[in-house]
Amino acid sequence: MLTPGGLPPLDAGERERAAELAARIRARIADHGGWLPFSAFMQAALYEPGLGYYMADGAIFGGAGDFVTAPELSPLFAACLADAVAPLLAAAGDGEILELGAGSGRLARELVAALARRGCAPRRYRIVEPSPRLQERQRRLLEHADAGTTAFEWLAAPPRDAWSGVALANEVVDALPVDRFRVTAEGCEAIGVTADGDAFRWQTQPAGRELTAVVAGLQRRLLQPMPQGFNSELRIGQDVWLRDAAAALARGALVVIDYGLPRAQYYHASRDGGTLAAFRRHRRIADVLAAPGTQDLTAWVDFSALADAARAAGLDPAGFATQAHFLLATGIDTELARLVDAAPERDRAAHRQAAATLLLPGEMGERFKVMALARGIRGPFHGFGFRNLGASL
Questions:
Q1: CB 372 within 8 A of CB 388
Q2: Domain count for the chain
Q3: CATH for 381
Q4: Domain that includes residue 314, residue range
Q5: Which has the closest alpha carbon to 245: 321, 155, 323, 317?
Q6: Which candidate, 171, 305, 155, 320, places its Cα nearest to that of 238?
Q7: What is the tens place of the pLDDT at every residue in 101-144?
Q8: Of 131 and 160, more confident
Q9: Is the pTM of this model over 0.90?
Q10: 251 CB neighbour count, 10 Å cutoff
């Protein structure tokens, strides 16, 4: 049985979890005078212990889940990433890898294997994973990985002791909470959440000092300021996330892969409404406030803001490319030929289709970007040779 939108209905466990989380959110709305910033709603919907989308049981990744990431789609992604990570590890010295949010663990498994084929597997691969159930899933996958001499370790938060190497954040920043706003003649107003019986609805109120200042700064940086009535979102909290993620990185780079745009395109007048979206079972859900904890909430990355946050954290935005340019520069054609030659005839078309999905502009090739944020090492970095826009963001 499907819902009118073509989705399977929530099962009893999902309904119970959504109801409990909704009750907690309504209590927080009441505690805040009847209105909650959307960033607080999104934080609860995704990360509430035991109830949030990433913190509870249920399928997320792959065909049986709600979305497919590049590592889930094809081993081509990890093989090409290894081609870029290997020289970064060499430049950092005896480096290790730190993955921030490892999803199913598929990227960790395939990246280590690809680096081992190149003779440069890291001695240690650490995973920062606050979700107990995702950590358990990763452990199950990686305990049988052909890791050679690489040791896998798990952390609940980024390390505090100095380390060198490469940090990876693949489809992590898009899941950091965002604040929504509307441009007004006086500056901006905040778009938050209020309770309406058992449901939630949008409601605006005058923006606080921080949101007002950030939007005003954004307007000053745009060649064409956002027009009155324009709706969008921004990530005030990503500065703290980036600072914490790279605080102990003494030498090396943080590589961010995600869907997003530079500032001028993100806040262009034609993009009124922003990029915030909800997904379940590979379908976009119209109501992002419905059934919290049972659907993924995500918004695109403003890579210009990420570059600004990097500079403030003592990192150099040393490489920026579309995913298509990055994969072409790191040898996806060679890796595809190797994969197809080794595959049974019945699997070869699927490998070619996966490569097309990774590369084509209408798929992941243009929507996804790859950014290298360096500390203590200097570019140019392999993989960013086709288009390096770091200085112009």
A1: no
A2: 1
A3: 3.40.50.12710
A4: 70-175+239-264+301-385
A5: 155
A6: 305
A7: 999 999 999 999 999 999 999 999 999 998 888 999 999 999 87
A8: 160
A9: yes
A10: 16
